[in-house]
Specification:
Helix content is about 60%, strand content about 0%. The protein has about 70 residues and is mainly alpha-helical. Helix 2 (about 20-25) packs across helix 3 (about 30-35). It starts with a helix and ends in an 11-residue tail after the last helix.
């Protein structure tokens, strides 16, 4: 699974709209939509902020790991 799938799945699981997540990132909904669809590369700061918001590791968010959290979190 890759980043675009992960951020969309996490958003849907949290019952949030694209606009709500865009507001958390302080960006326009269209910018966030492009991250979610893989049209635009998500900046590192935004990936970190989303990982913190969803309480998952950045590795999970990026699709590097299947574990949502690192041990000890």
């Amino acid at each position: 699974m890759n980043l675009k799938n992960r951020i969309e799945d996490l958003r849907i699981d949290a019952d949030k709209t694209q606009l709500e997540i865009a507001n958390i990132l302080h960006c326009q909904r269209e910018v966030y939509r492009r991250y979610e669809k893989g049209v635009r590369e998500i900046p590192v700061w935004a990936a970190v902020k989303l990982a913190e918001y969803y309480n998952v590791s950045v590795d999970y968010l990026l699709g590097v790991s299947k574990q949502k959290r690192h041990f000890g979190q």
